[in-house]
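Fold it.
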Amino acid sequence: MDENGLTLLKLEMTNEEIYLRVNAIHRLKTVILSIGNEGTVSELIPYLSELCKCEDDEVLFAIAEEVGQVFPLLDDKTLFLGILEELASQSETVVREQAAKSLNKFCDKLSDAEI
């Protein structure tokens, strides 16, 4: 079986233990490097968008945190903005605050036209 970082991430996200899912999210950089820009756009971003709709707050916080760290790895730095927008609208305060921090990191790196 040809496994890449995304396949392993999806497998780890099926675990019932929250701390294992959080740890899996903290390996997003490895996943992105494994699947490249095209795989990130076509597979990872839609997968993370789905996770944002059904995951526990701890995992959502980890997604917001990691996305703020890994966006420079992509050619188009704005690709994760939709995910952060979704996270910024969550009911849990710490998730919203972390999404806002990550959005601020984005804005520091984007041009005025991109913003």
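The helical segments are 5-12, 18-25, 28-54, 57-70, 81-88, 93-109.
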